[in-house]
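New to this. Look over this protein:
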Amino acid sequence: MPMGANFGDVDNDGFLDIFLATGARVRRSRSQMLLRNNEGKSFVDITASSGTGELHKGHGVAFADLGNNGREDILVSIERYAG
C-alpha cells in the first residue's frame, strides 16, 4: 500500500508518470516503484532500469527540476531502519 505518491513527467514525453512509495517495511522486495506512462494507454514498471527502487520505508514524494536542466528529479522521504 502506498504511503506517498505523486505524478511527474520523468521522460519529458508529455505524459505524467507515477512514483509510489510504500509505508510498509519490505525486506526482500522493493518498496518504491516508478511507473512510466505509455502514451496514456498503460503504465510500464521502470523501477529497476531507472535505479529508483528502494528497500526502505518511503513516505512523501515530490517531483521538481532541482538542477534547472529541464529534467524532473524525484525526491522521497525515506525512513532507514536497522535489521
